[in-house]
Design a protein that fits this description.
Blueprint (H helix, E strand, L loop, with lengths): L2 H8 L7 H17 L7 E6 L5 H7 L5 E7 L2 H10 L3 E4 L14 E7 L7 H11 E12 L5 H8 L1 H4 L3 H16 L6 H10 L2 E15 L2 H10 L14 H12 L6 E14 L2
Parallel strand pairs: 1-2, 1-4, 2-3, 4-5
Antiparallel strand pairs: 5-7, 6-7
Helix pairs in contact: 1-4, 2-3, 6-8, 8-11, 10-11
Length: 271
Amino acid sequence: MNSRIHDSVATSYNSAAGPYALKNQTVFARLRQRWAGRTTPLRVADLGVGDGGLLEQLSVLPLPWQFTGLDVSGDMLARAARRVSLTAVQAPAQQAAAHLPAAGFDLVLAHFILAYVPRRQLFEQARQLVVPGGLFSLATSLVEGGEPLLHLMHGPLRRSWHPGRQLLGWLARRGQSRSHVPASYAELAAELAATGWTVRHRQTLRLPVRFGSGADLCRFVLDDGWGTNVLTIRGLPVWLIKAMLRYTSTLLRYPLAFCLTVEVLELEPTE
């Protein structure tokens, strides 16, 4: 994880729109139901707090919240701190247990960070942080559902004679190779079980995504942060990589469409 890359996304990141917003609404509804009537402090650690949108939603519930937001990006932490009162910790999620108290949280959140955080490391970190009987809330996209884009990356873009299309295909394949997003729920469930987690509730969101133009594609990949893994090329500044992507995105044929599959899970430590 590169703080410079994530800082570059912070200015445009908006958790109140698109898939982020639907995920937040889904999680909010479940957590409100789970802890209705609680009177003792509820200690929450968000391992990838982003702009703090979910914590701000939770803060309206009449509960004695104690929020800790961890993020690799100092700019994201600053945005979150402006929205909700929290303890800010700048660190990567795969090192969370080195920066946060062991068994110190009733609820640990890890949403949409598996693109750049190794799965087993994250699950093991969360296991150390949550109290016995506590909850681990995990939300992640799957590779499943993105087959049209995968076909484009590995087929037409790779075989194209145009250097711009070849570059876009190379960047996309490179970003995919760096991602830790699971291929399927079965793969995800097996790793959770192996790291000591039991699934108590599962909700699958299937969200149609359609790009009508290169601007739509870049908004999703660059502005909304779904393509963070493609922004690191040694020796090149982020602004130049973004400019390259914006240009090469105009070389594709539109519309492009796929289904974003998102798993929203509530997990408890296996006894």
